[in-house]
Design brief:
mainly beta, Methylamine Dehydrogenase, Chain H, four-stranded antiparallel beta sheet, 5% helix, 40% strand, globular
Amino acid sequence: MFRGNPQHTGVYETQPLTQFKQIQWKFKAGQIASSPVVIKDTVYFGSLDGNFYAVNRGSGALRWKFSTKSRVASSAAAADGVVYFGSFDGSFYAVDAATGQQKWKFDTGGERRFTGKHLHGALPAGESMPDPYDCYLSSPLVWEGVVYFGSGDGNVYALDAKSGTLKWKFQTGDVVHASPAIADGTLFVGSWDSYFYALDAKNGKQLWRFKTGEDPDIHNQVGIQSSAAIADGTVYFGCRDSNFYAVDAKTGQKKWAYNNKGSWVIGSPAVRDGKVYFSTSDSGALYALDAKTGTGPQIFSSNKWPMFSSPALVGNMLYIGSDEGKLFAIDLSTQKEAWSFQTEASKQNGPKYAKPDGSPSYEAAFDSPFYDDVMVGYGRFMSVGAILSSPVVADGVLYVGSMDGNLYALQ
C-alpha cells in the first residue's frame, strides 16, 4: 500500500540502492502522479491517461491494463490477490491482481478537486477555481478485511474488501484526498476543511479532531493534502498552512508544530528510530527532526524546486523526488546526497523553466495571474518530468513514476 504499511511510516525493509548504475527498464504510460506498489513479481500503478497498469517487475513488460476512462491519481493497495484504487471518474475499484478483471466497483458521491475563489491570488477574483496542485486522489488502505479511502465528495469510506458493500462513511467539510492511516484500531486522516480527524476504524465514529490554519481570502494556506504517519503514540502530518504537526494519537492534543514560513507540506512524512523526515514545497527543504521535540536540521535542499513526493527509508538511505524531474538518494549516515537520477524530460525541458542558478523560474512558466494562464504554467512545470510519485524500493531496485509518462526501474 501507499507508504508501505498501515501506519504509513514510509519504511521499507529491503535491500537499499546505495549506487545508481542504470535504468533497468522504463514503461511508457501517460503522466504518472501515483506511487507504484510492488507485489511479488508485479508492479502496479495508475496513470493520468485513465488506465491502471500491471507490469512485470523483472522485464517491465505489460501484464494487463484496466481502463477507468478518467485520471487514476490514487496509489493502489493490494491484499489477498486483489488491487484497490480510485479514479477521477468518481468510482473506487477492486480488480483481480493476476488478470485485471473487475471484482467490484463502488460509486462515491463524485470526485472533484478542492475549489476556492481567488485561489492563490489568481484572477478573476470572483471566480471559483479548482486547485491545480490538488494532484492526488486518496490512496486506499486495507485492514482486517476492510478497505478505507477518502473522496472528493468529502467522505471517508469503509467498504467490505471482498464485496465492496458500505460498512460506514464519515462526512467531513470538504475534499478528502489525503490517505488514511491506521494504528491501534484508530483511523487518522486530514481533510481540506482544515481539520485532521481520528475515527474509530470499526464504526467511523469521531474520536477527536484537530484544527489547522485557515485562509478565507485566497485559500492558499489551508487544507491537508499530506497523509499522516503514526509512530510511538504520535501522529505526524503536514499541512498547506505551512506547519508540520505532531499530535497525540489518543487525545488529539498538539505536541509540537514546525513552521515552514509560507511553504506547504504536501508529501507524507517518514518516521523511524525517533526521527521524522518531511519535505516542503516552495522552499524545497528536507528535514530530519527529533520525533519527540520537533527540533533538528535541514539535511537537503532541492534548490527551491517543490517536493510533493514523499520520502522512502531503506536502511540508512532516504529517497525522494522533486518537481524538477530529479530523484535524490540521501545517505542518512552522512546527511549528504549519495546519487541522483534525472528524467529525460527534465534534461530537455528543465532549462527553459530554470533561472541561471538552477532554481525554478516561475516568471518563465506563468504568463499572468489569470487562472487560464496559471493552468498553462502548471503544465509547463510538469513538462520537466516532475516526480510527484513517491519511490518504492524492493530488493535493491527503485521504482518511481514521472509526469513524463514513464515508470522507471532503477538499479
